[in-house]
Amino acid sequence: MATTERWDADEAVTQMYAAHYTSLVRLAALLVRNSGEAEEIVQDAFVAMHDKWRRLREPDKALAYLHRSVVNKARSVQRHHTVADKHLYREADAVRRHEPSAEDRALDTQTRQVVMAALETLPQRQREVLVLRYYSDLTEHHIAEILGVSRGAVKSHASRGLSSLRTRLEEQP
Amino acid sequence: MKQFDNHTDRTEALLARALREEAAQVEPKSDALQAIQRRTSGTAGARTPWPGTPGSRTPWLFGAMGAAVATAAVITAVVVIGDDAATSRGPAPAGTPSGGVVQQDGMHQGVYDPQASDEAQLTMHYVGPESVAAEESARRLPPRLYTETHTVEPSGGDHALAAVHEFLTSRPIDRDYESGWPEGVDVTSVTDDGDVTTIALAGDADLGTSHMDGYCLLDAGVAVQALLRTAGVEQAARFTYNDKPVAVLFNCVNVAPSVAVQSDDEVRAFITIDNIVEGQMVTSPVTVQVSGNVFEGNVNWVLSREGTKLDEGFVTTSMGTWKQADIDLGTLEPGTYTFKALEYSASDGSPINVDDKTFVVE
Fold first, then answer.
1. ipTM score
2. Which residues of chain A make contact with B27, given a CB cutoff of 8 A?
């Protein structure tokens, strides 16, 4: 029997929190571009997992369940955001964020901002696939499971997303 | 720019590093776990998992408010316990195509009025508390189906359509039960086409129409069976949702080209209380009817009031098939009681296959 099968709902939350909370919040933050809302999204996902813990057919797939919840909730949040909201959130985030060293800021901040800005121009599904692939390091199979699409669709979204990203980055001076 | 990580493509490498560095800027709050635990404390998932144990989904006794709420859900004042009016009554077979689209008016609380006409009584089949494998207490089993009679305004029309509409748009009277279906979906027609019944659904709920096993709940298949039984489907059914054929429900239940009705052995609850709806008002003396299909046929029962056990015993039903038996509780003073029928695990003595009802004696 898998270890997760022995957990009760409270223990599942504690264990999954210790192992995955930070990475899930960061995943959500990459999707909604707001760390405060990212925490709310992930906490909602944990509460939902807790409520359904006894009914999960395969509790060893709890992480897939959390990923799915986070992506869905992030999508829902994004639908309700206006462009103006996003700008406000980003400003608030910037205040909260840890500032890198001057040397890092000179190189990485600029590069990162260019890449993140290019990423934001992509269609939602392509962005989700790229974040799950290149941040969460998930396989095509797992991404397909989380997004509820075929592996072929994941491959296609990733390919198109990367191609668009490449074009946009090449356009940069 | 230098090559990053294992990604051979420069864009991939740039993206991976940018995402990592961007993510690293986000530091979760230190009290997040406590925030989650505050929200999960006292919820269904926090309760002790096994039915019948303190705090489980099957309560020994409702709290004062719970009993009041449950009682309020029952319209009527008096019913003669033992009368068939309160027992399971099968819905009419799915019949001719229904003409009208059922109005979507949101969720409402189910009610039961034993004095209403037969036409107004609809039998809901609900997903009950989690099942527990007697031989291995930690093994997860799908929950099973229980029935509950709901009283609706007689429409004079399609019985199956009315039943499914009530199933999808009302909350069970017994809080131990659930439909297993999300809010935001309703039925538009139930059409019997020979061997296969077509159930047309509509709404904006996510029905999990793509396969995703990791997101699959134990009761997913049982929830589909609950709807089939409530619709009176005899053999098999196919689904449409917003006019499109459905191949998968709840991320893991294959329903294409059709899904067959499962047998009692596969989905029916092993022990059920048949003639009391949760919160029902009854007259004394009281007789409770239970159905059982359990080890050696022995169904144990406990009568309690305000947390105090008043009486207990057992009745012999059957093993291998379901058999109904009467339990005569005798004359009871006015008040609120809880009757619990259950089996004790042969392996560890824990309560399993529990059904319980709170009722009010006038």
1. 0.84
2. 22, 98
